[in-house]
Amino acid sequence: MKAKKQRLASLDALRGFDMFWIIGGEALFPPLLALSGWSVFAFGHSQMQHTEWNGFTFYDLIFPLFIFLSGVTLGLASKSLRGLPLAERKPVYGKAVKRLLILVVLGIVYNHGWGTGIPADPGEIRYASVLARIGFAWFFAAMIVWHTGVRTQYAIAVAILLGYWLIQAGFGDLTPVGSANARVDQCCLPGITFRNRAYDPEGLLSTIPAIVNALMGVFAGRWLRRYQGQHGKILQGLVFGGSACLLGGFLWHWIYPVNKALWTSSFVLITSGCSLLLLALFYLLVDVWQWRRFSAFFAAIGCNAILVYLGTSLVNWSYSSQSLFGGIAAALPEAGGTLVIAIGVILLQWLLLRWLYKRGIFISP
Length: 365
Hints:
Shape: globular
Strand content: under 5%
EC number: 2.3.1.3
Transmembrane segments: 20-44, 56-76, 96-113, 125-146, 153-171, 204-223, 235-255, 261-285, 297-319, 339-357
Keywords: Acyltransferase, Membrane, Transferase, Transmembrane, Transmembrane helix
Largest sheet: none
Helix content: 55-70%
Number of domains: 1
Oligomer: single chain
Order of helices and strands: HHHHHHHHHHHHHHH
Protein name: Transmembrane glucosamine N-acetyltransferase NagX
Enzyme class: transferase
Mean pLDDT: 93
Number of helices: 15
């Protein structure tokens, strides 16, 4: 699909920054630490690991940030279907359902990539996935935006966060086995769960609060559209909103822990706050200060984020990097060789994405 519409440069750059860590950026820290001994690389490596249960690291932000950015795009469009006849609404609904189904199918493909393939037995397929959650969060956020007013949208977001908290608190157990999420997934989720756990981190119940991550993006996108060209006003709103979410999330954490696996409401606030602040930073760097070289590197990744995400499961980039740069890597100390291969993995993917970007080819569901 060749894009003809104007794209928000900071949005594409931030999406690319988000995906950079997925395509191999996280692998840079261990060899850099071994070569330099700098503690900053040790800290960076620690932030590239998911928390085991309660808590928060930068790597936990990557997934909800992508959902947030899908909401920003929705908010920038600011479409409403209220009052339109069914004949005019049906094509929009059809596209939304098609997008959702494609993401669900691609999520299954991704789950069973890595050289294994989708099982022949439907009962052995993992249906829940990162892409499916992105699809459902965007779909329900779109339905809310298309059919309700702004105040109602805020009220729905608050109701989801509070309602989800009450559901989980009602079980009185936020453990992997005893949580409400585990009960629902064991009862109603078809197929298998991630690593056959009692719950699935992308399971049924925890998809509900992810809708709020998308709605937070909608609110940010609407703010960008409303104050287009008023840089100070835009930055002020994003920073204030992000700070308020972070404060609310940290305070809530004391009675309702931040937990990515359960996607707790406090986790939604923390990730939404970080997402808003990152959007403010990228808006400042790219759209205000015009750091085009900085943005071009990440935008090439961000404009085809779904494609590159699937590529991490279906293509052995390490093999390709080793085939091209293995000789150079072998001539260096172990840490240096590891770094060369890691950079090669990123470079090969970026060159392909840059080729698509330069030709205006953006592949999306």
